[in-house]
Amino acid sequence: MATSDDPIDVRIAHSGLAESVLVLEWLVDDGTRVNAGDPLVVIESEKTQFEMEAPIAGVLEIVVAADDLEVPAGTLIARIRP
């Protein structure tokens, strides 16, 4: 059973536009406190670059996908602990 202290997974969304994306640059480091909506990482698809935002406020606990790594949609790239 999930609790409010359980980390939240940050995943590459299935947009239907691209099967994979490139993680260009993390804008925050592990252990950094973020607010909901803060930019976390710059992502590049076949057609555009965009910033993924923190879905919740908390501490960026684990960065799983490194800079310059191509990852498929649905991939876990980080976790945030509330």
Explain this structure to me?
- This protein has one domain: OB fold (Dihydrolipoamide Acetyltransferase, E2P) (Beta Barrel), CATH 2.40.50.100.
- It is 0% helix and 49% strand.
- It has strands at residues 8-11, 20-26, 33-34, 39-44, 49-53, 58-63, 69-72, 76-81.
- A four-stranded antiparallel beta sheet has the order 1-8-6-3, with no helix packed on it. Strands 5-4-2-7 form a four-stranded antiparallel beta sheet, with no helix packed on it.
- With 82 residues, the protein is mainly β.
- The chain contains no helices and eight strands.
Using DSSP, what is the number of strands?
Answer: 8
Terminal Cα span: 16 Å
Tally of alpha and pi helices: 0
CATH topology title: OB fold (Dihydrolipoamide Acetyltransferase, E2P)
- SSE topology string: EEEEEEEE
Low-confidence stretches: none
* Helix content estimate: under 10%
Radius of gyration: 12 Å
What is the level-2 CATH architecture name? Beta Barrel
Q: How many structural domains are formed by the residues?
A: 1
The assembly state of the depicted protein chains is: single chain
Main sheet strand line-up: 1-8-6-3
Largest sheet: 4 strands, antiparallel
Structure summarized in a few sentences:
With 82 residues, the chain is mainly beta. The protein has no helices and eight strands.
What secondary-structure arrangement, pairings included, does this model have?
Blueprint: E1 8-11, E2 20-26, E3 33-34, E4 39-44, E5 49-53, E6 58-63, E7 69-72, E8 76-81
Antiparallel strand pairs: 1-8, 2-4, 2-7, 3-6, 4-5, 6-8
